[in-house]
């Protein structure tokens, strides 16, 4: 037995750690703590309101995590035509089949098998599953083209709860996913602090808008790399603004570069942070003009993490039997022909034009389905629940469209009214615009290529705008801040009130879509 | 005590939330509809498949969930082979301790057809059999799509057939969404494998409904007060 003198130093250290943790938690601004509480509460509600594996491509993402966690290998990239049935282990297929989850995903007239007798049937099927039923899901996954960072992180909760049946395991894995959502909110809060100074209501409005964007809360409890991508892109914006504002230091450059590298290792869409990183480094150099040697050190700090990330991805892929980076998608995107059809700049431009301005003037050259800003920026951005096909009632979408257009007009008016202020903040405006433009051009291009190669389909959906959610919050706060002193907070309060209602509406829509 | 700016913002947020909650209640939660009780075999999403039952022939689907509120069964009829519409179709639903027979009359035209059935007292897993009682072939619509596949096994004339004949159970009574919240929460609990029991779903729902609006108003008010104190 240890003597009192032996235990005292340990107890002392533990007590001081406890005090340290308590002190650190106590330093969290109360409004931010309340926003995080709201976000965590909404996530819990969404985890219940949205059935397991019914999120966007969730069954495929889970299959990736499971195969990686069970075997240590990346699943095989599916090169042939995507099958109608999601890939997955026997365990996943048995669950999906027993509860009718697959037809319920895409067909809004279908309900899952939700009764207790269905559950008993699933338990019987689970008991009769052969050994190895969890490990046999690597035969080809269309999402295996995604880089492994997110999936590798999700293997931690997977392994922690592997002893639980699949439905319970997925429920808990989804909850741990919420950490990315909370990180996004904290980054947005800090970003607003950097841009607007320590004006609490502006920080609260920015972070509140991010937390209460209905699709953010929904997505936070689906197994989907977008959650990590959103957090990393927001972190990247924060690190970039700090770098430009405070001047270059190796650590600040490393921070921005690490976020960009991690985003690129999370999803192909994370690659858009790389040109933005270049813009950030150039702007920082122009603003602070470091000496030649300092410039070299900073350039090295900027490039090294990105290079190391790609090297790691290539080596990891090779070691686990996977082929090219991003499943060969990047080289595919750079080729001239797709599916026997040749890339045409005029046609691409026409497709973009029609996306935004078709109701005014339609250009004849565009191809693909009728798919425009209303579907992506309104319906898809605010309310694409379930597997993307569960949405707000039409009347709510119409109100949202009107309010968004009104908000956009208000933003333009605010920019005009505060032009001097905007001009002074040119480096941050440039970074924000470069992220916005790079992302939109990338998404339009990928979508156009998909239409070229498949002849149909649309790969530009509202959820893909969420990595820029902090910019959305900043734009709203900037507009509110440009109003007369007392009106700004009231405008913000109205926005937050509407956002709460949208979150509740989304929850109800999901509950009655899947459970009643 | 809150100052003017914080008070005004709090009042605006509270007013927007209260007014919106009333609209949500009035236009969405109190909206009446005949709810879907279950979809043991859904319609095809993209490519429908037709199944032909010759006179006297029987199609059976096993492992079908029979819901206690499924008072109406909906079938999807294909284009009839004769100009007199579809032949009469007998529907037999059975499960241990339960048996119900209903008949779809002759002459139904192509499209959805509904017939009243007597549901079991509790959810049951059973069999749904459809028999052509007419003299002309009956055409039923279903699916062979992989994405619409269910756990049921279909046999026609005793032989296994790939695909499912589309079957949907609906409640015959219109109900408000609010009144169905209890059953929705029970289903939600089941789909967490009862990790979240029904009572906890209720607790979470009430907790969210109360704390999210209050905490939202509180964080804005707190932030404004901090600004005024600074």
Task: Describe it.
- The complex is a heterodimer of chains A (516) and B (230).
- Chain A has helices spanning 4-27, 30-49, 58-71, 90-98, 101-106, 116-127, 149-160, 166-196, 200-212, 214-219, 226-246, 250-264, 273-288, 292-319, 329-334, 345-357, 373-383, 394-417, 419-424, 426-454, 469-481, 487-514; strands spanning 337-338, 341-342.
- Chain A has 516 residues and is an all-alpha fold.
- The longest helix of chain A has 31 residues, at 166-196.
- Chain A is globular, with a radius of gyration of 24 Å.
- Helices cover 30% and strands 34% of the residues of chain B.
- Chain B has three helices and 15 strands.
- Chain B has a six-stranded antiparallel β-sheet, with no helix packed on it. A four-stranded antiparallel β-sheet of chain B has the order 2-14-5-8, with no helix packed on it.
- In chain B, a hairpin with a 2-residue loop joins strand 6 and strand 7 (98-104).
- The longest helix of chain B is centred in the C-terminal third of the chain and has 32 residues, at 198-229.
- The radius of gyration of chain B is 25 Å and the shape is elongated.
- The mean pLDDT of chain B is 93.
- Classes of the chains: A mainly alpha (516), B alpha+beta (230).
- At the A-B interface, helix 2, helix 5, helix 6, helix 8 and helix 9 of A face helix 1, strand 2, helix 2 and helix 3 of B.
Gist of the model:
The complex is a heterodimer of chains A (516) and B (230). Chain A has 516 residues and is mostly helical.
């Amino acid at each position: 037995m240890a003597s009192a003198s032996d235990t005292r130093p340990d107890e002392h250290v533990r007590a001081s750690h406890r005090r340290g943790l308590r002190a650190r938690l106590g330093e969290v601004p109360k409004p931010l703590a309340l926003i995080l509480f709201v976000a965590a509460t909404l996530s819990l509600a969404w985890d219940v309101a949205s059935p397991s594996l019914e999120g966007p491509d969730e069954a495929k993402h889970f299959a990736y995590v499971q195969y990686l966690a069970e075997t240590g290998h990346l699943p095989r990239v599916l090169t042939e035509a995507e099958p109608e049935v999601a890939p997955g282990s026997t365990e996943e297929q048995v669950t999906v089949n027993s509860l009718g989850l697959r037809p319920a995903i895409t067909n809004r007239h279908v309900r899952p098998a939700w009764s207790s007798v269905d559950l008993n049937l699933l338990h019987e099927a689970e008991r009769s599953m052969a050994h190895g039923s969890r490990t046999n899901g690597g035969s080809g996954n269309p999402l295996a083209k995604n880089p492994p960072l997110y999936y590798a992180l999700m293997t931690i909760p997977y392994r922690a709860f592997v002893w639980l049946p699949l439905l319970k395991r997925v429920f808990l894995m989804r909850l741990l996913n919420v950490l990315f959502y909370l990180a996004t909110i904290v980054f947005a809060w800090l970003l607003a602090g950097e841009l607007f100074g320590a004006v609490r209501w502006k920080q609260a409005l920015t972070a509140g808008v991010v937390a209460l964007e209905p699709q953010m809360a929904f997505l936070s409890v689906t197994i989907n790399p977008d959650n990590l991508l959103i957090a990393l892109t927001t972190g990247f914006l924060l690190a970039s603004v700090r770098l430009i504002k405070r001047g270059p230091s190796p650590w600040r450059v490393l921070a921005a570069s690490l976020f960009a590298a991690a985003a690129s290792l999370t999803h192909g869409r994370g690659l858009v942070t790389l040109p933005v990183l270049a813009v950030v480094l150039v702007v920082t150099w122009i603003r602070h003009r470091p000496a030649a040697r300092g410039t070299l050190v900073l350039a090295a700090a900027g490039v090294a993490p990105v290079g190391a990330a790609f090297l790691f991805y290539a080596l990891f892929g090779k070691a686990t039997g996977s082929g090219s980076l991003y499943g060969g998608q990047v080289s595919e995107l750079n080729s001239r022909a797709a599916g026997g059809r040749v890339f045409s700049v005029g046609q691409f431009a026409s497709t973009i034009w029609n996306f935004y301005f078709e109701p005014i003037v339609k250009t004849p050259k565009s191809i693909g389905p009728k798919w425009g800003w209303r579907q992506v920026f309104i319906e898809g951005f605010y309310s694409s629940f379930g597997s993307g096909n569960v949405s707000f009632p039409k009347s709510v979408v119409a109100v949202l469209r009107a309010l968004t257009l009104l908000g956009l007009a208000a933003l333009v008016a605010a920019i005009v009214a505060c032009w001097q202020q905007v001009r002074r903040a040119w480096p941050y405006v440039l970074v924000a615009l470069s992220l916005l433009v790079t992302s939109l051009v990338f998404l339009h291009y990928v979508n156009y290529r998909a239409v070229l190669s498949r002849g149909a389909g649309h790969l530009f959906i509202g959820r893909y705008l969420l990595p820029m959610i902090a910019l959305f919050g900043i734009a709203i706060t900037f507009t509110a801040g440009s109003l007369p002193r007392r009106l700004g907070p009231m405008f913000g309060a109205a926005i937050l009130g509407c956002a709460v209602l949208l979150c509740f509406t989304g929850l109800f829509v999901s509950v009655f879509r899947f459970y009643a | 005590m809150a100052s003017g700016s914080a008070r005004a913002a709090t009042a605006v947020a509270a007013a927007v939330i209260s007014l919106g909650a009333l609209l949500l209640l009035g236009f969405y939660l109190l909206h009446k509809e005949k709810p879907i009780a279950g979809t043991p075999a859904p319609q095809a999403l993209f490519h429908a498949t037709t199944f032909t039952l010759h006179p006297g022939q029987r199609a059976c689907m096993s492992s079908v969930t029979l819901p206690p509120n499924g008072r109406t069964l909906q079938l999807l009829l294909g284009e009839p082979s004769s100009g007199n519409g579809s032949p009469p179709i007998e529907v037999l639903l059975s499960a241990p301790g339960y048996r119900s027979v209903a008949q779809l009359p002759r002459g139904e035209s192509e499209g959805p057809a509904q017939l009243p059935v007597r549901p079991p007292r509790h959810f049951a897993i059973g069999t749904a059999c459809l028999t052509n009682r007419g003299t002309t072939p009956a055409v039923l619509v279903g699916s062979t799509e992989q994405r619409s596949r269910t756990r049921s096994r279909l046999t026609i004339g005793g032989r296994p057939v790939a695909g499912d004949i589309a079957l949907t159970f609906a409640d015959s009574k219109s109900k408000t969404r609010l009144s169905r919240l209890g059953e929705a929460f029970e289903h939600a609990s089941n789909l967490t494998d009862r990790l979240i029991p029904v009572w906890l779903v209720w607790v979470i729902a009430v907790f969210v409904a109360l704390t999210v609006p209050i905490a939202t108003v509180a964080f804005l008010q707190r932030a404004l007060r901090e600004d005024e104190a600074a």
